[in-house]
Amino acid sequence: MNKQVLKTMIAFIVLFSVAAYSNFLPSKVSAATSSVRLSSLSPDSKDDFYTTYGYDEEKFTDVYGKIVNDGLGFYGNSPYASYEVSGKEYSSFEGKVTLDSREVNGDYGKSVVGFYADDRLLYEKPLSKSSGVINVNVKLPKNTKNFFIIVKEVEGSKGKHLIVVQDGTFVKGGSYLSVPYSSYSSLITIGTSNSERYHSTESYHDLEDINGNLITNGFSLDTPGYEGGLSYSTFSIEGNGYNTLETSISLDARYVNGDWGKSVVGIYADDYLLYEKEYTSKTPIQKVKVSIPKGTHHLTLVTNQIKGAKGTQAVTFSQPVVSKVGSSYKSIPYTALPSTIGGNASNGAWETNLSQFGGIIRFSNGTLATSGLILESDYDGDAYVNYNLSDSGVNYFKAKLALDSAYLQGDYGSSTIQLLADNRVLYSKALTKSTGIVNVGVQIPSKAQEFKIVVKQKEGAKGYHNVVLGNAVFQKLPVSSKLSPSRVSVANNYNQNDVVTVKSLAKGDVIKVYNTKGALLATSKPVTSNYAKISIKQLGTAKGNILVSRTTSGVLESDSVSVPYAAEPVPSPSVAAKQVTIENNKNKNDLITVKSLSKNDVIKVYNSKGSLIATSKPVASNYTKISIKQLGTGKGNVLISRISTGKVESAKTSVAYKAE
Q1: Strand order in the sheet with 624-628
Q2: Which pLDDT score, from 0 to 100, does residue 32 have?
């Protein structure tokens, strides 16, 4: 036996031994995982679902014409199959997706396939002849209850595609999809509690994003093409603890080429606006994620539209889901639309809210809002609306104020808006073409019973303006704590500025002083220590009251406290020059004598420049003598004043003296 043959035999024996031994070793892959073929399972629910091709029960093919030995077919407008997987420990799904080669050559329309774990989209793909054979490998969340395969199709001139899921397999024993959510639901699953022109993928298979791709789970909002207006969908989420809403928003691609008007989209948590954006044919898909405030009862998604020459746009919302992520919530104040408060009288006023269209809310620059008020005077008089606030608890009103851009070119007269609480004017503004958009916010007094919006207009040759209050809401905001009168003192000074002193303040506090009619007299700068001194030119000579409020940083102004002040002190009688004699002595102190005084009068002596040079003791009789070291050797003048008991210093009297 030669060496080469021996080497060959040894190698063969070693190889056989290793192979034989390896059969007794545990397989790492098979020990860790196992799999179940999708084709071995029966769907719990299905539609337009097939296991063979045609009446002859042929096998499916892939897009290249190759036979698919293990495949499932989907053919129709909205085919689907669902599998209950709860408790079966499937960690992932693997397989391939393709189109059957017999329905690809020519116009077979559009197709999309999506794989879902309950309401969670795991994978979505538009399909065409060029897609080829696509590998799908997705992990499932650990507690998945149902697995869905969802297909949407739009028919072409030759029919529809046949979608083939090839070699579908559930895998056990691998890692699960890690998710941060403790709850997760599609808005389509929740369903609308109220809606107008809402179209979901449960009923419609042909919803598209702006790129022309079909949507497997979502809805659209549109308005009648002949008039535009409002469409909305409201979802009740009360008690579920959701704190996040996510969706992808765009215009439907079928309504962007040409003049289809304009659309604005809003998302509201009850009456609170979470998101607003105007969409045009150039707006790409917007991935929107907003925080949901705690205690939210309803989510409303709304669009307002202006029709174009070709009609109106459609807005699509793909994969709209709500979830609970962590335990934190968006903090917001109580917010109410005007319609929630309720107007009790009006003229020439219309509100567009989340379910009622009162007119398009369009600002002076042509941009749109999803809610607000429109006011226009008519032959019955000024436009106005009253709101009863007695049981509302609100203390703030805000809006975006503007003239409607459709009423600017030409003579539409003049307009002035006023916001009033119990007939007290809180805000007033004349509006012109150049006003633009003004953010208006007014604090409503705590005991106000009525809030009124009035637009006073003069008609022009073309009529009246439309005055717009976009995104108008009432709110309940935190209020600064009210001052106690004991912390406020008022010095009503004679012949100088009066001073209001407020003690025990926090850094950054701002103090405002009003007269009893509510007119603002003074505002302090933010305090830098624990008190404020506010100088006021004159409160008046008589006694009276002022109103003092505090505004702490970041919150609303407090209610004002009424603080009394005394009348200005009465000035003492001035000293007449004839009452004064001055001895300008040589080599000894000079002497000033003032006669005809009252008991306890105090005399002050100033030089001609106003500097104090001497003060007498309170007089014990009817005169006083004041010794001054030296007035000077030359002649001159001094200024003499008197302070009588209970009175302030008198005016100064100039008295001449001779040279020594």
Answers
A1: 580-583, 590-594, 624-628
A2: 63
Give the C-alpha separation, 555 to 176, whole Å. 47
Report how far apart, in Å, the C-alpha atoms of 395 and of each of 103, 444, 555 are: 65, 5, 12
- How far from 422 is each of 419, 449, 549, CA to CA, in Å? 10, 6, 20
Cβ contact 589:628 at 8 Å: yes
Cα-Cα-Cα-Cα torsion 232, 236, 238, 241, nearest 10 degrees, comes to -80
Percent of residues in the chain assigned helix, strand, coil, to nearest 5? 10, 50, 45
Q: What would you report as the CA-atom Rg of the chain, rounded to the nearest whole angstrom?
A: 43
For range 17-46, the mean pLDDT: 66
Query: Bridge-partner residues for 530, per DSSP?
Result: none
Q: Amino acid identity, residue 389?
A: L
pLDDT-derived band at 17, boundaries 50, 70, 90? very low
CB 54 within 8 A of CB 162: no
- pLDDT, one tens digit per residue, over 41-95 is 999 999 999 999 988 889 999 999 999 999 999 999 999 999 999 999 999 999 9
Continuous H helices in 147-292: 187-190
β-pairing verdict for 163-172 and 286-291: unpaired
Q: Cβ(174)–Cβ(135) under 8 Å? A: no
Question: Taken in order 15, 21, 24, 30, is the CA torsion positive or negative?
Answer: negative
Q: Residue 623 carries which side chain, given as an amino acid letter?
A: Y
Task: Collect all residues with Cβ–Cβ distance below 8 Å to 650 and sequence separation of at least 6.
Answer: 571, 572, 573, 574, 575, 641, 642, 643, 644
Is the CB of residue 566 less than 8 Å from the CB of residue 642?
no
User: Distance between CA 478 and CA 181 in Å, rounded?
Assistant: 32
β-pairing, 163-172 with 218-222? Answer: unpaired
Handedness of CA 407, 408, 414, 419 (dihedral sign): positive
The SS3 call for residue 30 is helix
pLDDT single digits (tens) 87-123: 999 999 999 999 999 999 999 999 999 999 999 999 9
Mean pLDDT within 243-254: 98
The pLDDT assigned to 343 comes to 86
pLDDT of 596 over the 50 cut? yes
Q: What CA–CA distance (Å, rounded) separates 201 from 217?
A: 6
- Counting Cα atoms < 13 Å in the Cβ hemisphere of 441 gives 8
412 and 464 Cβ atoms separated by less than 8 Å: yes
Rounded Cα gap, residues 275 and 184, in angstroms: 21
The residue count for the chain? 660
Residue position matching structure tokens 């969409």: 279
Helix (H) or strand (E) holding 643: strand 636-643
Q: How far apart are the first and last CA of the chain?
A: 156
Look up tokens 């009360």; give the residue. Answer: 238
Distance of alpha carbon 208 from alpha carbon 152, whole angstroms: 10
334, β-bridge pairs = 476
Contacts of 233 (CB under 8 A, 6+ apart): 187, 192, 194, 195, 196, 198, 219, 221, 300, 301, 302
